[in-house]
Design a protein that fits this description.
Chain A: This is ABC transporter. The complex is a heterodimer. Chain A has seven helices and ten strands. Chain A is an alpha/beta fold. The longest helix of chain A is centred in the C-terminal third of the chain and has 17 residues. Chain B has two domains: 43 residues, no CATH class; 212 residues, Orthogonal Bundle (MetI-like fold). Chain B is flat. Classes of the chains: A alpha/beta, B mainly alpha.
């Protein structure tokens, strides 16, 4: 895929243009989580369908995240790993203004996140394409408000080319495959020219080979327009392949004699060595993989090797 | 059944006989023809007296007679006009109220119980009030029909809007849509199939309320033909009015059905 930075011609939404910052067309914003916590209220009216679970656990408020503090550099790719239900999607939703924190704050480019923040674009776990619109019209939905018609059309065509869907521009979502729909969804998110790209297990529902291709596609896109990316995933290999840094969300071990505080927080932070695209067969990455899997509660069936002490790999704590 | 046997002997590539349009039309006409036959037979065999059930031919004669007097066309035209105007007003108001109640929780809490109670009022209960308020003119009848058409649209639209896929709405919001734009881009297209089935229900209801209005206070129209013939003991005209109502209701519903097919193809 050959997309040059010069192709990102579309104007940013006015709200996103901050004074002094950013310079150039490919602004990427820093994201700063400080002391973030999120507790789900016990109300049965929450949007999750918990009707089956109304027997016991609904009475109590459920802490999901606590004390999450991390700062993400502009243009960095941060992978958020964690077991299912640990709150990684919640963290992402809070970053995009789709949910609000119970404690702490998130700042993008120094200013607090607003509801459905226009500086972010979200790639959801499901494609979430409008079934009555063509693929091209769905991608156009992502264009910043006020984009001129002609410029918008050109941008959509360019994005469809980038994700390899030009031939399917006039198809309805129902008549393309899941992988294509997910690519269209990615193109829609990219159409915003986001300062922060939030991806919530974007390739989770894809078959293994398509997933690898999509990862390479994402790397191409990022190389062409290095925006800040927060990537939620449960796939350790994917995180190692794509991210500059990986945080592992989970329950902290209980201090001796005490009970552990409820809610997930950052239990590991790993800077992935090497530049992208990385060798999928790298032994160094394999060692990191084993360590991350152990952090996720998976028995690696082996012993840590010497790589952890090697000079080429910085590891936590640095 | 010969219809079911034929496709098995036909080449595999051919469409089954039951999905062909001509078969559907002919098959749908079978039962009415059968009813007509039984009707005719029971008259000719003298199973019922002609004063209770006149033969089909005398209904036809009554139709021709009324047509020659110019009344038949007038009655059909005025009844259809009342239904269409009342339906248009009621459906438009129902769409607006349904959108309001379906989208806003506050409006839901405020309006829904009252509207639900008004909906429970039987159509005939409105008639005396409407006649006193609006006199025996077109307004009172059209108002009654509009009331009848309002509720099916209101109910289906409000229900459908409440069940629009939350994920799609959230995606719309995440891409900067809100308010009217969100409604136009996500919520309205998502409920269009339900809106149209609500419209079909409303149209059927409009014909029901038409007869209620015309039975009691009218000097022309199919409902008037019914009540007038009932007073005169003209069973042939009563049957004629019933058949005409059935045909007109079916016809208008079929027109909406075509529209529904097109819309579902476009939006779903």
């Amino acid at each position: 895929m050959s997309a040059s930075p010069a192709t990102r011609t579309t104007a940013r939404p006015a709200a996103a243009v901050r004074t002094g910052e950013p310079t150039g067309t490919d602004a990427a914003y820093a994201v700063q989580f400080s002391g973030l916590g999120r507790t789900f209220a016990p109300s049965p009216g929450s949007r999750r369908r918990t009707r089956a679970a109304t027997t016991t656990s609904v009475e109590v408020a459920r802490p999901v995240l606590r004390d999450v503090s991390i700062s993400v550099q502009p243009g960095e790719v941060l992978a958020i790993l964690g077991t299912s239900g640990c709150g990684k999607s919640t963290l992402l939703r809070i970053a995009g203004g789709l949910d609000s924190p119970s404690a702490g704050s998130v700042r993008i480019d120094g200013s607090p996140v607003t509801d459905f923040d226009t500086r972010c674009a979200v790639g959801f776990q499901e494609p979430r394409l409008l079934p009555w619109r063509t693929v091209a019209d769905n991608v156009a939905l992502g264009l910043p408000r006020g984009t001129a018609r002609e410029a918008g059309r050109a941008r959509v065509a360019e994005l469809l080319e980038l994700v390899g869907l030009s031939a399917f521009a006039d198809h309805r979502p129902a008549s393309i495959s899941g992988g294509m729909a997910q690519r269209a969804s990615l193109a829609r998110a990219l159409a915003r020219n986001p300062g922060v790209l939030l991806l919530d297990e974007p390739f989770g529902a894809l078959d293994a080979l398509t997933r690898l291709k999509m990862q390479d596609l994402l790397l191409d896109v990022h190389a062409a327009a290095p925006t800040t990316v927060l990537l939620v995933t449960h796939d350790v290999d994917e995180a190692l392949q794509l991210a500059d840094r990986i945080i592992l969300l989970g329950q902290e071990a209980a201090p001796s004699g005490g009970s552990r505080p409820p809610g997930a927080t950052i239990v590991q932070e790993i800077t992935v060595p090497g530049t992208r695209p990385r060798d999928r067969g790298s032994a160094e990455l394999a060692e990191l993989r084993g360590r991350l899997l152990a952090g996720l509660g998976i028995d690696r069936h082996g012993d840590p090797r010497g790589v952890a002490t090697g000079t080429s790999i910085p590891h936590f704590p640095y | 059944m010969t219809e079911t046997l034929v496709p098995s002997t036909a080449p595999a590539a051919r469409r089954p006989l039951t999905s062909r349009r001509s078969v559907r039309i002919v098959g749908g006409l079978l039962l009415p023809l059968l009813i007509l036959l039984v009707w005719q037979l029971s008259s000719t065999l003298g199973l019922v007296t002609a004063s209770q059930l006149p033969p089909p031919a005398s209904v036809w004669v009554a139709a021709v007679d009324l047509f020659e007097r110019g009344q038949l066309t007038l009655y059909v035209a005025i009844s259809t006009q009342r239904v269409l105007i009342g339906f248009a007003i009621g459906a438009a108001l129902g769409l607006a109220a349904g959108a309001l109640v379906g989208l806003s929780r506050a409006a839901d809490i405020f309006f829904a119980p009252t509207l639900g109670a008004i909906r429970a009022v039987p159509s005939l209960a409105w008639v005396p009030l409407l006649i006193i308020w609006l006199k025996i003119g077109e307004e009172s009848k059209i108002t009654l029909i509009a009331i009848g058409a309002f509720f099916p649209v209101y109910t289906t639209v409000a229900q459908a809007l409440r069940h629009v896929d939350r994920q799609l709405v959230e995606a719309g919001r995440a891409f900067g849509l809100r308010g009217v734009r969100l409604f136009g881009a996500v919520q309205l297209p998502a409920v269009i199939p339900s809106v149209i089935s609500g419209l079909r229900l409303a149209l059927a209801q409009a014909w029901l309320f038409l007869v209620a209005a015309e039975l009691i206070a009218a000097s022309m129209g199919l409902g008037f033909l019914l009540s007038d013939s009932g007073n005169n003991g003209r069973v042939d005209r009563i049957l004629l009015a019933i058949i005409l109502l059935a045909l007109l209701g079916k016809l208008t519903d079929a027109i909406l059905g075509v529209f529904e097919k097109w819309a579902i193809k476009k939006w779903a």
